[in-house]
Amino acid sequence: MLAYILRRIALMIPTIFGIMLITFAIIQFAPGGPVERVLAQLQGQQEGSLSRITGGQGDLGGGAARGGGDSSKYRGAQGLDPAFIKKLEAQFGFDKPAYERFGKMLWDYLRFDFGRSYFRDVSVLDLIKEKLPVSISLGLWMTLISYAISIPLGIRKAVADGSRFDVWTSAVVIVGYAIPSFLFGILLVILFAGGSFLQIFPLRGLTSENFESLSLWGKAVDYAWHLVLPLSALVLGAFATSTLLTKNSFLDEIRKQYVVTARMKGVSERRVLYGHVFRNAMLIVIAGFPGAFITAFFTGSLLIETIFSLDGLGLLSFSSIVGRDYPVVFATLYIFSLLGLAVNLLSDLTYTWIDPRIDFSARGA
């Protein structure tokens, strides 16, 4: 087992390297960038000032007003001092060749030194730490609640396979899975957060403004109250896959010979289900828990964060990509990739913990 773990860890290195290299190469060819963003802001301010001076009559003389027709590899750099542009490049690290910048980034990331945000006066690590509570809250509670619903429901559906209960719950699960979470979130806002009808739940943040002055119980209630609507929107379709997976796993185990033998010996149905079937049937479902959490943590919250004004990692990553804040983009990608690979390994190890008969050490990497 130790050899298998070491092989998996060794494989993480080229995987991370490949992810970062491909992303870095794409960024080099992507239009725009931090230098272009600053230049565009400067040009906008310059044109706005000129418009005010000329009474809204536009640019008097075009290139003359901009100081001539200097050529530059940056759009919007005409008329600006080349020395100033060089200083901008040095400030953002673009005065060095691409391979040197990539090598420095990898060396810094190996030491978990992610630098500072280009456009926020804060280190990238502090920025990520600031956004973590929202993403962890959404990812963790969504996963726990969806499993708490799907496992009992899947078992009940397997026991009552083909019954009226099985049919109508399958219809509910499929409909819930088909409804986009962001659309259901908007509906919840309209109905319960002051959109058009009731004002029952808060619409912004994870806590209220007076959170620090509340008692411990009051803080817990306030925190839960803020999560009701976003979690309802996320959970709606999250438990569909695990419910059907649980049902099918139980059906496969219930039909096996050892279950028939146990029933013939007079073992109670409850003991058959939870003493014999449960461990084998839950192998796939429970072992997938770490991966389900990471999936919810990474991908499930951008639109929900936007709708419910929750400032988490999803919104941070999106705004950083749009704003060309490359240190934040690369740092979040690196951390997410590293966590994803670690969780895949953890999922495999969970299989062996649940069922010791599985031996990964006998497999090749």
Summary of the model, kept short:
This is Microcin C transport system permease protein. This protein is mainly α and 365 residues long.
Which helices and strands appear, and what pairs or packs with what?
Layout: H1 2-29, H2 34-53, H3 82-92, H4 98-110, H5 124-159, H6 164-178, H7 181-192, H8 216-254, H9 257-264, H10 269-287, H11 289-299, H12 302-307, H13 313-322, H14 326-354
Helix pairs in contact: 1-14, 5-8, 5-11, 5-14, 6-8, 7-8, 8-10, 10-14, 11-14, 13-14
Classify the fold: give the CATH topology of the largest domain.
MetI-like fold
State the low-pLDDT regions, or none. Answer: 49-71
Helices, by number, come to: 14
Question: How many extended strands?
Answer: 0
**Mean pLDDT score:** 79
CATH superfamily of the largest domain: MetI-like
N-C termini distance = 11 Å
Number of domains: 2
Q: Quick one: biggest sheet?
A: none
Please write the CATH class name of the largest domain. Mainly Alpha
Strand content: under 5%
CA-based shape? globular
User: What is the N-to-C succession of helices and strands?
Assistant: HHHHHHHHHHHHHH
Gross CATH architecture of the largest domain: Orthogonal Bundle
Q: Indicate the radius of gyration in whole angstroms.
A: 27 Å
The portion of residues assigned to helices is over 70%
- Class derived from helix and strand content: mainly alpha
Subcellular location: Cell inner membrane; Cell membrane
Organism: Methylorubrum thiocyanatum
InterPro entries: MetI-like (IPR000515), MetI-like_sf (IPR035906)
Biased composition (Gly residues): 55-70
